[in-house]
Write a structure and sequence with these properties.
This protein has about 325 residues and is of the alpha/beta class. The chain has two domains: about 210 residues, Rossmann fold, CATH 3.40.50; about 80 residues, Alpha-Beta Plaits. Helices cover about 35% and strands about 30% of the residues. It has eleven helices and 13 strands. The strands form three sheets. The chain has a six-stranded mixed β-sheet, sandwiched between helices. Helix 3 packs across helix 4 and helix 3 packs parallel to helix 5. The longest helix is centred in the middle third of the chain and has 16 residues. It is elongated and about 75 Å long. It binds adenosine-5'-triphosphate and magnesium ion. The site of adenosine-5'-triphosphate (ATP) has 13 residues, from strand 2 and helix 1. Magnesium ion binds next to helix 1.
């Protein structure tokens, strides 16, 4: 029982929000969302990335009809929360950042409760099968592992057979195996033609699952595109990371000297040079040419090169370049 998710001609986007603002009336007020435009196509898996406090959950909750916006227009599945709330609610599935499920219910009872909110829905067995939790049907929620609880939260979100799914940090805090299991579940839901809006702190997750991503920072979208487009915007496919001390005064290691960085920018095909403490990061197109030129330059200047690592550029590099921050949970690479 799958909904047909073909776009109507007058409903070009599954989510269309323009000029979205949210100010929490605290003292002082918090401008959590400051003019966000997002258009998500039908059938797209769209990722919202950003550091803590960037406004991801606030934006999601407005789109989910759980929070009123301070300003801006929101259309979900071509409808408006003001006039079509009942209809939208029947057509979406929501998994919140922190799902509070009753510890005393069993897995089966929990899904049955969520199912009761919808006119048309999967059976409990179908929902549990979609997240591979059938063998835990009679287990109490407080006996589940973190990964199993997360899968149960996804089961509760999909039991309505939704056209549009909101998943706020579906894999945060999970071990690598459980994360992969949730990725597979999301991959299957996406292959069924559903539209998915998810938030994540994991760049590898976004790169793997999402057709397009928006990077949020301080309540604004600071970059938008496919993962490939964003990585290409760095101007180079390779990252070279190293530390390099001037021989004479090793204490200068902490200080990234601007003339030295400028000489690094002149190396062949280098598009970006960034320093973070003693560490320098280059993005470049032609790795062998850069390595040869870098070693020559280091030798000419009498410096000592250490801890040199090369790897392919990732969304992490885009994120660090744009925000100057490393995302929580992102290992240094
Ligand atoms: N109910 C609230 N009242 C006041 N301020 C709030 C409230 N909820 C969130 N905020 C503030 O709004 C800003 C955006 O919060 P939000 O939860 O949307 O961020 P987020 O991007 O989801 O962060 P995280 O990655 O930590 O989940 C933060 O500064 C936060 O402190
Ligand atoms: Mg959040």
């Amino acid at each position: 029982m799958l909904h047909s998710v073909a776009a109507q001609p007058d409903q070009a986007f599954a989510i269309d929000c323009r000029g979205l603002r949210k100010t929490y009336p605290t003292r002082p007020p918090v401008e959590a969302v400051q003019g966000v435009d997002l258009q998500v196509h039908y059938g797209e898996c769209f990722g919202v990335l950003g550091p803590n406090g960037a406004g991801k959950t606030t934006t999601m909750e407005i789109l989910e009809g759980l929070l009123p916006a301070t300003a801006g227009q929101v259309r979900v599945l071509g409808r408006s929360w003001d006039s079509d709330a009942r209809e939208i609610r029947q057509r979406i599935g929501v998994s919140l950042q922190e799902t509070i499920l009753s510890d005393d219910l069993t897995v089966q009872e929990t899904v049955r409760l969520f199912r009761s909110f919808y006119r048309q829905a999967w059976t409990v067995d179908q929902a549990l099968a979609s997240v591979s939790l059938q063998e835990k049907a009679n287990a109490r929620v407080n006996k589940l592992s973190g990964g199993q609880k997360q899968r149960l939260a996804v089961a509760c979100a999909v039991v309505s057979d939704p056209e549009l799914l909101f998943l706020d940090e579906p894999t945060t805090g999970l071990d690598p195996t459980s994360r992969r299991e949730v990725w597979e579940i999301i991959g299957r839901l996406r292959a069924q033609g559903r539209t998915i809006l998810l938030t994540t702190h994991y760049m590898d997750e976004a790169q793997r699952l999402c057709d397009r991503v928006a990077i949020f920072d301080q309540g604004q979208v600071i970059a938008l595109g496919t993962p490939e487009q964003l990585i290409r915007s760095l101007g180079g496919d390779h990252i070279v990371r190293f530390t390099c001390a001037p021989v004479a005064t090793p204490q200068q290691v902490e200080v990234a000297e601007e003339p030295w960085l400028e000489r690094l920018r002149q190396l062949p095909t280098v598009s970006l040079v960034e320093a973070e403490g003693a560490e320098i990061r280059l993005a470049c197109q032609h790795l062998p040419a850069v390595l040869t030129a870098l070693i020559d330059l280091v030798r000419q200047e009498g410096r000592v090169l250490s801890d040199l690592v090369t790897r392919g550029a990732t969304l992490d590099d885009v994120f660090i370049h744009l925000t100057g921050k490393r995302l929580e949970g992102t290992p240094e690479s």
